[in-house]
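Continuing the batch. This is chain 6 of the set; chains 1 through 5 are on the previous pages. Same settings as before, nothing changed between runs. Recording input and output for traceability.
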Amino acid sequence: MKMETPNSVLALARADLACYAIAQYPSFELAAHHRVIVDKLEAVERGEIQRLMFFMPPRHGKSLLATQMFPAWYLGRPSRPVRDFCILRAKTSPTTLAAGWAI
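Output for chain 6:
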């Protein structure tokens, strides 16, 4: 098995949101429904989708991908200026803190 160099991993992470998520969160396992989420988020990045909502049960990775990994990956993409993207943050509520959510 070929060992990946840090530069090749970085290039993959810049090009693909799923690779970025795995590089940032090594215990993340990409399931079929994650691939659908990643494909839709990458379509948002390309400008093909203007509005996107996910409706899935809790604990399916939608928050990790859509609110943690995607904004960071998007801001690091060379194809979009930072001014094109606005990140909104929810108020820190007891529910958010109790759930251990990282916002």
